[in-house]
Structures are given as structure tokens and as C-alpha cells.
Design brief:
The complex is a heterodimer of chains A (about 300) and B (about 280). Chain A is of the alpha/beta class. Chain A has 13 helices and 14 strands. Chain A folds into two domains: about 5-170, Thiamin diphosphate (ThDP)-binding fold, Pyr/PP domains (Rossmann fold, 3-Layer(aba) Sandwich); about 185-310, Rossmann fold (3-Layer(aba) Sandwich), CATH 3.40.50. A seven-stranded mixed sheet of chain A has the order 3-2-4-5-7-6-12, sandwiched between helices. A five-stranded mixed sheet of chain A has the order 9-11-10-13-14, sandwiched between helices. A two-stranded antiparallel ribbon of chain A has the order 1-8. Chain B is an alpha/beta fold. Chain B has helices at about 5-30, 35-40, 40-50, 75-85, 125-140, 155-170, 190-195, 200-205, 215-230, 265-270, 275-280, and strands at about 65-70, 145-150, 175-180, 185, 185-190, 210-215, 235-240. Classes of the chains: A alpha/beta (about 300), B alpha/beta (about 280). Chain B: GO terms for molecular function: metal ion binding; transferase activity.
Chain lengths: ~300, ~280
């Protein structure tokens, strides 16, 4: 786990590979191509790259126009703009007509860091998963980000790919596959299930190790596909352990925690505790400091896991 | 090339038929938007029956011209044109806005044959038209993309984002027609949020701009013909129109933006739009 690579960097690399494999891929950006890492695609395939300037509403609907002609557009900007500023465009130009548009949003969550609350998108999973036709995927590391970028290109329909800013450790080796609609069972356990996504997967693994020191056997699931979600894996795990802790870099409302709770409430009710930002905005600071301050630390997961077992 | 007298008569009569079907379907639906449907009848007649390269038998021909109706509430007018053109049966117009109908209250590309883009949230259509026009350039196809906009609609900021994109990418295969009827839901456009000077604005955004009387078939035809020959710039045809055109009691009356005629009102409208009335 030594090398740290940002999921957005893997996204940029995957785009170039996709661009080489098929000529129906076009990439759009809104003046953030160096940050979203679409600049590498621009360099390789300048005729298939379109920068619309600082205009996110235009970005999303232009991508929708492309898709009506059979192209597969990847529209990229920061998560706050892709889903918040352009929500109506995502809803009415992309999801309602079920267009084959891929929205790849970087700089999601608290780990945007120093830019502060205005840029820390904590509601995007909620907004995107409530839209009919939309698929929502949240890679935990560079390997899965690269694979999932290719996966969403294969799926016919709208996809939201949630990416992060900072470098994160590799969790997966390169030969792993990430079918949309499935989750990854990373560690088997019997006492409690920890379901995490994105940057919280690494912390979930650490939390399981800490719990093991206290003879608590935690099962760890990377739920990289939030919609559709892997109901079978969730239900099976909850039946075995009898309690679930969710962990996400997102507001506690509408995200992974509520997606998991919904599946369990309908199929196999067990106690659920949510590790998430507690309905508040963030602030400027370093990513790790913010994750700890806003209740997303390894110890927060450990504490909720123990609480559930009381 | 200018229109022959025969073509001109045919297009005027087709505009009349578009209006007839529009008021009939709105009366049957009991709701909808007559004002902005009637104001663009000549545009639809010219596009669907003279200029656009489309064929109801080959609806998805990749080389076809496309129309994006950005002012989506005007869709009854568009449904009329599509039905008369043969995209679906004229009888089906009577299902407008009813449960299980293919004719939704606003354009739905997945449901209705001939609808090229789902719209209804104002301000988005021009961006979609840009995407289609950019794709044509990328694939070196020579189809044109038309986009009909409302004059109230251009108050939306996204229109001007899109206007920059169109000129930045030199989309000379994009032809906008602004249905400048001067009215929006809450009143006269210039009183609510004055978009003037409209032609100067489009020019300043890098567009070629033409001004016409939107109900004069020949003027409108000449403008579309000129726009098709334009190179390196998108063209906006600012078409001065009358909201509710063709039905005396609807003309220039704000209230007729979004309400359906009663049976009695329908009869009066049909009398006015009859063969004799239309040519008078």
C-alpha cells in the first residue's frame, strides 16, 4: 500500500486507452482539464476533445446532444458543478431521455481540502442515485477507477463516476474486474459487516484490523457500485453478521448508508450505523484532518461497529 | 432559390393545417400551449416541408437534418407538423397529454417518432443542438441542425453559454430560429426581463443574424436558404411573430400562452382557420 495514485489520474489514463480502442468516445470538459485529467485525452485526440469553458450546464447538455448521434461522451468537471450546478441538465437532458452520457466528476467530498465547503460536494451520490436511469459508481483506488471508467463506457445509459482529488493507496491488483451492480468482498468476517465506498474503503480495512485486535471479526465490502447496488452480497453478509456499519465520504442523507439501509430494511432488517458527514458543511483544511474532524476516522468506524454489537 | 407560386401556396396551406391540428388537439387535451405553437407554424412548415432532409420512412438516417425544439412547450405545433409529414397518424394527435400516449406534454425523444431531443426545461436546447452539430463536424457529415428558441427562453443563462460554444466552434451547420413573439407567461417579454437589443446580442456572441417577418413564407424561406450557405458562423434568424397567430382572440393575448380552447372557442378558431379564412 505504499504507492498513492489519485482516482482522477487513473480516469485520465483510462480515457486515453478507451480513445485508442474506439473512435466513438468524445470527451468534454469545462476549463478544468488539468485537474480532471482529461488533458491527456486532449493531447492524444484533440479532434475528439471539447472544452466548453466555464459553463457546466452547457457541458452536460452538449454531451447529451453528442449522445443522440451515437457518440459516447464523457463530460468532466468537479462533482459540485457536475451534479449541483447542472442538476436540471443531468435530469432533463441526460436521465429522462436515457442518454448514453458518462458524467465523470472529480474533487468529490471533503478531501478536496483547502478549497473549503463551497467545493466539497457531499450530496452528489444522493442527487445522482435518486435519478431514474442513472448508474452511480464510486471507485476506491486507481485500479478500480481505471477499470470502472472502461465499464461505464460499455454500459448503454447514463453513468455517474465519482472520483477524488488526493492520491490514495492501491487496494486492488491489476487483473481485478469490477462489474457494475456488484460489490467486492474484501475480507470475510462473522461479527459485523462494514460496507464502504471511495476513500473510506481503506479506512474500513484499517478498522477491521483494529477490531481484529479486540477479537471482533469484521467483514469488509467495497460497494463501488451504489446504483445498481449488490443486494445479494449485502443480504448474505447481514444474515451472517447481524449488523452493518456503512462508511462514506458524503452527507449521511441519501448516500451509501441510506442505500444499504433501504435494501436491508426491505429484505433482512438488521441494525445499521452510518459513518458519514453528519448533515453539515465542511471547511478548509487538509483532507485527512477534515476526514477525522467530520467523523470519518478509522476510530469512528471501530466505535460504530462496537456499538452495534452491544 | 425563391419559392414557386405553387410551393408558396402549399407552404401557406400547410402552416394553416398545422394551426388547425394544433387547436384541435389542445381542445381535446384540455391543456397545453397554443400561443407559442401558433406563432411558429410557418417555421415548421418551411423546415419540414421544404428545407429539412428527413424521411419518415427512415427516421434514424444518420445523415438526416435535425430539429431541436428548445421552447419545448410549443410541441403541439411540432406534433402537427410531424403527423402531417407522416411520422405518425394524424388521428394520434388527439391523444396529446393523455395517459399512455406517445405525445407527452413536452418533447420526449424516446416516445415520439421524429422528436430529436427531449426538452421542456427552458434554455437547454441550443446546447444539445451544439452537441449534434459538433458531432456532424467530427464525422464530416453535411447535415444541418435547426434549433427553434423562444424570446422569453433566451433569458436563461445557459442559452448564452451555448451561444458562445456555437460560435467558438464555428458551427455553420447550426441554424437557430428565434420565435420573437414578445410574450411570456407573466406578460410582455420586454416588461418581464427585456432581452433587447436581441440582434446585437447574437451578433456580439459571434453569430450571423438575419431578421425577418416570421409569418412571411418568402422572407423566412430566403433567410433559411441564406443561413444554409453561411460558412464559419452559426446563424440566428430572428423571426418577428405574433403569439397565437391565426386565431383572432388568441393573437397577442398573454393568457393564451398556456390554456386550451373550449368547444365553443375551438369552433370559432376552426372557422377562422378554414381554407377561406386562412387565405384571406
Amino acid at each position: 500500500m505504499a504507492e498513492k495514485i489519485a482516482t482522477r489520474k487513473a480516469y485520465g489514463e483510462a480515457l486515453v486507452e478507451l480513445g485508442n480502442e474506439r473512435d466513438d468516445i468524445v470527451v468534454l470538459d469545462a476549463d478544468l482539464s488539468k485537474s480532471t485529467k482529461t488533458a491527456s485525452f486532449q493531447k492524444e485526440f484533440p479532434s475528439r476533445f471539447f472544452n466548453v469553458g466555464i459553463s457546466e450546464a452547457d457541458l452536460i447538455t452538449t454531451a447529451a446532444g453528442f449522445s443522440t448521434t451515437g457518440k459516447i461522451p464523457f463530460a468532466s468537471t468537479f462533482a459540485i458543478f457536475a451534479t449541483g450546478r447542472a442538476y436540471d441538465q443531468v435530469r432533463n437532458s441526460v436521465c429522462y431521455p436515457n442518454q448514453n452520457v458518462k458524467i465523470a466528476a472529480t474533487h468529490s467530498g471533503l478531501t478536496v481540502g483547502e478549497d473549503g465547503a463551497s467545493h466539497q460536494m457531499l450530496e452528489d451520490i444522493s442527487l445522482m442515485r435518486s435519478l431514474p436511469n442513472m448508474n452511480v459508481v464510486v471507485p476506491a483506488d486507481a485500479t478500480s477507477a481505471k477499470e470502472l471508467t472502461k465499464e461505464v463506457a460499455e454500459i448503454d445509459g447514463p453513468c455517474y463516476l465519482r472520483l477524488g482529488r488526493p492520491g490514495v493507496p492501491l487496494i486492488y491488483t491489476e487483473d481485478e474486474e469490477f462489474p457494475i451492480g456488484e460489490g467486492k468482498l474484501l475480507k470475510e468476517g462473522t461479527d459485523v459487516t462494514i460496507v464502504a465506498c471511495g476513500h473510506m474503503v481503506e479506512r474500513a480495512i484499517f478498522a477491521a484490523e483494529k477490531l481484529a485486535d479486540e477479537d471482533i471479526s469484521a467483514e469488509v465490502i467495497d460497494m463501488y457500485s451504489i446504483k445498481p447496488i449488490d443486494e445479494e452480497l449485502l443480504i448474505e453478509s447481514a444474515k451472517k453478521t447481524g449488523g452493518v456499519v456503512t462508511a462514506e465520504e458524503h452527507n449521511k442523507f441519501g448516500g451509501l448508508g441510506e442505500a444499504v439501509s433501504g435494501v436491508l430494511a426491505e429484505n433482512n432488517p438488521v441494525p445499521v450505523r452510518r459513518v458519514a458527514v453528519n448533515d453539515t458543511f465542511g471547511e478548509s483544511g487538509k483532507g485527512d484532518e477534515l476526514m477525522d474532524k467530520y467523523g470519518l476516522s478509522v476510530d469512528d468506524i471501530v466505535e460504530k461497529a462496537k456499538d452495534i454489537m452491544k | 432559390m425563391s419559392l414557386t407560386p405553387k410551393e408558396k401556396d402549399f407552404l401557406i396551406d400547410t402552416s394553416r393545417k398545422i394551426r388547425v391540428e394544433t387547436v384541435k388537439m389542445l381542445a381535446e387535451a384540455g391543456s397545453g400551449h397554443p400561443g407559442g405553437s401558433l406563432s411558429m407554424a410557418e417555421m415548421l412548415s418551411l423546415l419540414y416541408f421544404k428545407h429539412m432532409n428527413i424521411d419518415p420512412e427512415h427516421k434514424l438516417d444518420p445523415n438526416r437534418d435535425r430539429l431541436v425544439l428548445s421552447k419545448g412547450h410549443g410541441v403541439p405545433g411540432l406534433y402537427s407538423a410531424l403527423a402531417i409529414k407522416g411520422f405518425f397518424p394524424v388521428d394520434e394527435l388527439m391523444t396529446l397529454r393523455k395517459l399512455d400516449s406517445r405525445l407527452q406534454g413536452h418533447p420526449d425523444m424516446k416516445n415520439t417518432p421524429g422528436i430529436e431531443m427531449t426538452t421542456g426545461s427552458l434554455g437547454q436546447g441550443l446546447s444539445a443542438a451544439n452537441g449534434i452539430a459538433l458531432s456532424a463536424k467530427l464525422d464530416e457529415k453535411d447535415y444541418n441542425v435547426y434549433c427553434i428558441l423562444g424570446d422569453g427562453e433566451i433569458q436563461e443563462g445557459q442559452i448564452w453559454e451555448a451561444a458562445m460554444t456555437s460560435s467558438h466552434y464555428q458551427l455553420d451547420n447550426l441554424i437557430g430560429i428565434l420565435d420573437y413573439n414578445g410574450m411570456q407567461i407573466d406578460g410582455e417579454v420586454q416588461d418581464i426581463m427585456d432581452p433587447r437589443p436581441i440582434t446585437d446580442k447574437w451578433r456580439a456572441f459571434g453569430w450571423n443574424v438575419l431578421e425577418v417577418d416570421g409569418h412571411n413564407i418568402e422572407e423566412l424561406h430566403n433567410a433559411i436558404s441564406k443561413a444554409k450557405e453561411q460558412s464559419e458562423k452559426p446563424t440566428m434568424i430572428v423571426a418577428k411573430t405574433i403569439k397565437g397567430k391565426g386565431v383572432s382572440y388568441m393573437e397577442n393575448v398573454v393568457d393564451w400562452h398556456g390554456k386550451a380552447p373550449s368547444d365553443e372557442e375551438l369552433q370559432k378558431a376552426l372557422e377562422e382557420l378554414s381554407d377561406e379564412g386562412g387565405k384571406a
